[in-house]
Amino acid sequence: MKGFEDLKKLYKQVKPQIISRLKEFKRPLKDEEIFEELAFCLLTPQSKAKICWEAIKRLSDNKILLNGSKEEIKKHLNGVRFKNKKAEFIIEARKFFTRDGKIKIKDTISSFKSPCELRKFLVKNIKGIGYKEASHFLRNIGLGDELAILDRHILKNMKNYGVINEIPKSITSGKYEKLEEKFKVFSKKCSIPVAHLDLLLWFKETGEVFK
């Protein structure tokens, strides 16, 4: 691997922000708030995270996320790519986690022994969720300390630091797990925890510690 003294220096500067953000992710959440995070991660593929979160807040503020039709949801997805398909994904996920007319997602989450098992369940059962999105969701609800969110920013840096030789054009579940193991080795070598390293690399590329 290439030297990462620059990364350690940046980490020292940004660490307080990272710790604060991760602490926020671990706050107690209601079922509705957890579903907001799931819906957010359904929107993020090929779209900017900030725009997606703004769309989720509009949907929630207008009481549409949990009750609105596909057309109502789509109208609030300004700036989100593939809004028609993603509105469908939100509707399908909402149906999957609805019990007796209410969102019931906490019970499902607590029934799994590990985040890795829960991630596989989400990928298998929720349309629009792949390993990256499931990892992102679990991190945002406080369960992703050992999961890597392998988006383009992370993969770019893994290549730049010599962790991987090239950025794969497509990533299967098996490939994702192998890349994640390499990310964990990277984490150990630079003595930065997995969840911290993920947010650090995001900051390095975007200039902020976001979601």
Written description of the protein model:
The structure is a single chain. The protein has about 210 residues and is mainly α. About 65% of the residues lie in helices and about 0% in strands. The protein has a two-stranded antiparallel sheet with strand order 1-2. Strand 1 and strand 2 form a beta hairpin. The longest helix is centred in the first third of the chain and has 21 residues, at about 5-25. The chain is globular. About 35% of the residues are buried. The model has no long low-confidence stretch (mean pLDDT about 95).
Unreliable runs: none
Q: Rg from C-alpha positions?
A: 17 Å
**Overall number of strands:** 2
Q: Largest sheet at a glance?
A: 2 strands, antiparallel
State the secondary-structure class.
Answer: mainly alpha
Predict the CATH topology of the largest domain: Endonuclease III, domain 1
Please report the number of helical segments. 11
User: Helicity range of the residues?
Assistant: 55-70%
Overall domain count: 2
Q: Can you tell me the CATH superfamily of the largest domain?
A: Hypothetical protein, domain 2
Order of helices and strands: HHHHHEEHHHHHH
Strand order of the largest sheet: 1-2
Query: In CATH, what is the class of the largest domain?
Result: Mainly Alpha
The average pLDDT is: 94
Task: Tell the overall outline.
Answer: globular
Write the layout of secondary structure elements.
Layout: H1 5-25, H2 31-43, H3 49-61, H4 70-75, H5 83-96, E1 98-99, E2 102-103, H6 106-110, H7 115-125, H8 131-140, H9 152-160, H10 173-189, H11 194-206
Helix pairs in contact: 1-11, 2-3, 2-5, 2-8, 7-8
